[in-house]
Amino acid sequence: MTGVLVDACGWVALMNSGLNIDAAMRDVVGAPELMLLEGVLEELVELSSGKKGLLLPLLESRSTMIGNPAGMRHTDDMLLKISMEKGWPVLTVDIRLKERLVMSGCSYVEVVSGRMLRLIGP
User: Fold this and answer.
1) Can you tell me the distance from the alpha carbon of 53 to that of 31, in angstroms, rounded to the nearest whole number?
2) How far apart (Å, rounded) are the C-alpha atoms in residues 39 and 43?
3) The pLDDT of residue 52
4) Which residues of the chain fall short of a pLDDT of 70?
5) Where are the domains of the chain?
């Protein structure tokens, strides 16, 4: 299994795409093990109050929870740090985060045109 860190905007984009999570992920990274930071889950819980269809119970049931790295406050910084340490791609559509990941030698999975996933990076 390949670890894939989930970013809030990446999860929202994946849910909006209507893609089958398992099939779409399998096509780009093989069998994924979704990794969910506590901070990202908090962001998604906040978003879910104004947006329906985020399927947070599905995400929680399919993910391994990861505590926030000590001394860090911004989830993008946390995702970058863990991606660098573990070599896991990040599911995201955030342009700034994607740039930071590539500049740091990390990879990411993005939703392309709302209908497919693509892996970018080493």
Assistant:
1) 24
2) 6
3) 79
4) 1
5) 2-120
Q: Are 113 and 16 in contact (CB under 8 A)?
A: no
Please tell me the predicted confidence (pLDDT) of residue 87. Answer: 96
DSSP-derived pairing of the beta strands 2-6 and 32-37: parallel
Tens digit of pLDDT for each residue in 18-52?
Answer: 999 989 999 999 999 999 999 999 999 998 887 77
Homologous superfamily in CATH for domain 2-120 = 5'-nuclease (3.40.50.1010)
DSSP helix/strand/coil, 105: coil
Using a CB cutoff of 8 Å and minimum separation of 24, what contacts does 36-39 make?
A: 36/6, 36/60, 36/63, 36/64, 36/65, 36/66, 37/5, 37/6, 37/66, 37/67, 37/68, 37/75, 37/78, 37/79, 37/82, 38/65, 38/66, 38/67, 38/68, 39/68, 39/75, 39/78
Which pLDDT score, from 0 to 100, does residue 51 have? 76
User: What predicted TM-score, i.e. pTM, was given to this entire model?
Assistant: 0.94
Going from the C-alpha of 27 to that of each of 11, 23, 40, 68, 101, the distances in angstroms are 17, 6, 24, 29, 21
